[in-house]
Amino acid sequence: MTSRDYNIAVLMPTHRRTDALRRSLFSLIDLAHDLESVQFRLGIDNNDKIGLNYFIDNIQPELDARNINYEALEFEPLGYAGLNQYFNTLAQDASADWLFVWCDDAIMQTQDWDQ
User: With the CA atoms of 25, 66, 5 and 115 taken in that order, what torsion angle do they form, in degrees rounded to the nearest 10?
Assistant: First the structure.
């Protein structure tokens, strides 16, 4: 059995989301029990300048300041019909025991969801 770096990898493709992405992502972060065991993997379309710029200017600095384990990957646009490809690519290099599929407009409400 392979040793993994994290317990959970959150897989989150996003497209043209700004505030919704922020609320979704930080609901996971704020309600997690052990952030050191969670890896966040986001997928952003390379033609989504609104979402990409918002991520770089508003979300990434806070993730870095809070020392959150994350990776943001740029994708050639695959559309909603290619959603499975986003998740498969994000999962491919995840280093976690569990994969957690998450949507960029969902809000976590459960404290310690990662236990």
Answer: -60
* Residue found under tokens 């290619």: 82
Distances (CA, A) of 13 to 4, 34, 41, 95, 112: 22, 22, 8, 17, 23
pTM assigned to the model: 0.93
In the chain the first and final C-alpha atoms are separated, in Å, by 21
Q: Residue 1, CB half-sphere, CA atoms under 13 Å: how many?
A: 4
Residues β-bridged to residue 111:
none
Residue 4's pLDDT band (cuts 50, 70, 90)? confident
Query: Burial level of 25, CB count in 10 A (0-12/13-18/19+)?
Result: buried
The total number of residues written for the chain in this structure: 115
